[in-house]
Amino acid sequence: MRLDQRVAIVTGGSSGIGRAVCLDFAQSGANVVVADIQEAPKQGIYHEQDTVTTTTQEVENLGGKAVFVQTDVANEESVRSLVDATVASYGGVDIVVNNAGIYIPGDSQQLSTQDWDRVIGVDFRSVFLLTKYAAPHLMRSRAGRIINIGSVHSFRGGAGPAYAPAKAAVVNLTRDSATELAPHGVTVNAICPGYVETAIQDYLTPEQIDEARQRTPLPRLGVPTDISRACTFLASDDAEWITGVALPIDGGWLAPII
Ligand SMILES: NC(=O)c1ccc[n+]([C@@H]2O[C@H](COP(=O)([O-])OP(=O)(O)OC[C@H]3O[C@@H](n4cnc5c(N)ncnc54)[C@H](O)[C@@H]3O)[C@@H](O)[C@H]2O)c1
What we know:
By secondary structure, the protein is α/β, with parallel strands linked by helices. The protein has a single domain, classed as 3-Layer(aba) Sandwich (Rossmann fold). The protein has helices spanning 16-27, 55-61, 76-90, 113-140, 163-181, 206-215, 224-235, and strands at residues 7-11, 31-36, 65-70, 95-98, 145-149, 187-193, 246-249. A 7-stranded parallel beta sheet has the order 3-2-1-4-5-6-7, sandwiched between helices. The longest helix has 28 residues, at 113-140. The protein binds nicotinamide-adenine-dinucleotide. Nicotinamide-adenine-dinucleotide binds at residues 11-12, 14-18, 36-38, 42, 71-74, 99-102, 122, 149, 151, 193, 195-196, 198-200.
């Protein structure tokens, strides 16, 4: 699956799943824009403790091309500047991966309204913003693609009153954008990961991680490349007639539930 000369914006590309997507895309020939609030990769307590090289440096080590654009995906001006900077660097946009995300633990009594707004802003509003500003460029592409990162919590509660509803909304926005952009040849799909070993899991206890492992039918937890490989497929010409889907990649976690 080749993405030669395609221009891809990957939000949250400095760490975790987004970083793996950047590396996979670059190895497939794409020019990558790493859009993140911080350039340094996150180091987790349980996962990715030793990751130090920036994504752009790692892409260059692989012989690919990448630029970093500091972006707060919840901020409209920042997202508009990201698209402008991408077009200035590479002349257009072919692929957008709305991956940046945060998780703030807490139930309705513990989560502040400010934190609720922040989760909705980073995990959901951002998808609307980047879709809005990138769509005119994607429509001019020969193979425009949007890939939104949801979660298994797109389909069930239990992850707090902000994260699960934001991720459910991402899936329905995916369907709406797919419908809107299909006449322009732009596909819009969501990938909904189960437990993937990244620094986002730092809020968990070792017992909770063990429980997640036991509840996953396949005998291991996910790793970022489990997600990036599917992302590369959805971005490729091989996926040109797939749009509006929400694909769980979860080692079977949802299978006994839905
Ligand atoms: N890891 C999992 O188990 C899992 C499961 C389901 C869904 N997801 C989703 O996958 C996506 C990636 O998560 P991850 O596990 O790689 O997490 P991560 O914490 O390793 O990486 C998230 C990246 O997003 C960036 N980011 C945070 N806020 C931002 C903002 N306002 N603007 C721009 N960038 C910002 C961070 O700096 C970081 O580089 C998220 O949307 C997350 O909800 C992850």
